[in-house]
Amino acid sequence: KAQFPCLPQRAGTGWSSIAGIATPRTQPPSTHPRSLMCASHSRREALMLATIAAPLLSHPTSQALPLAPLGAVQVGENKRTGITIQELKDILARDIGEGMYFVTGNLSPEVFDDNCRFIDPTNDVTGLSRYMKALSILFDPALSKVVLKDIKVTSPSTIDADWVSAGWLKKELFPWQPKVPPFEGHTQYTIGDNGLVVQQKQTWSISALQALRETFTPTFGPREPLL
């Protein structure tokens, strides 16, 4: 069975594998630089663990089940292929500013292609359904926030947005209670010939290594809004 090469595999000390996951570790993982560099796929391991482990938290004896099938999966019934790029910009503005979908997964699926590619400094995911599900279980929406700073059409096929985000990862999946302090982000949306978003690419004011360090850094004391 497949295993994460950089995470402990001993029973009772961490996540045992993708196919059969033990209970989460009770102590936070090491933040030694060597341990951080070993996790060469950066925050992707944490994201994958979250998407796979969620069903097991309430059913610990069951096998891990994928939260979304591989390949194209239709999300939403009526794709809005006939809208103008200005209308699309307004929808994305609401999704970011009001839906805060980077930390909730609450986006408008009708304006995204089901095979949309989502890229950031630590992840490269293809598939709208997988992206939405991962976001919905990763962050605590009550304590996480996204503030939209600006969004504009930058070409006939691109929309760019600037924002600030901060929050907490869900303690059910990350018992050492990691937090994500405020950081700035930039997102570029690429629009396909069908008028839908076919790629979302993010850059951050923090490095991939810093994002990883935050994911595996324990927090003590009360959990309070950071933004």
Q: What's the gyration radius in Å?
A: 18 Å
Distance between the termini: 41 Å
The number of helices is: 6
Return the string of H and E elements: HHHHEEHEEEEH
The number of strands is 6
Spatial shape:
globular
**Share of helix, binned:** 25-40%
The poorly predicted ranges are: 1-27, 35-42, 48-71
Mean pLDDT: 77
* Main β sheet profile: 6 strands, mixed
Beta content comes to 15-25%
What is the spatial order of strands in the main beta sheet?
Answer: 2-1-6-5-4-3
**What structural class do you assign from the helix and strand content?**
alpha+beta
Structure characterization notes:
The structure is a single chain. The chain is of the alpha+beta class and 227 residues long. The chain contains 6 helices and 6 strands; from the N terminus they run ααααββαββββα. Strands 2-1-6-5-4-3 form a 6-stranded mixed beta sheet. It starts with 32 loop residues before the first helix and ends in a 12-residue tail after the last helix.
Quick recap:
The chain is an alpha+beta fold and 227 residues long.
Summarize this structure as a short list of keywords or feature phrases.
single chain; 227 residues; alpha+beta; globular; disordered N terminus
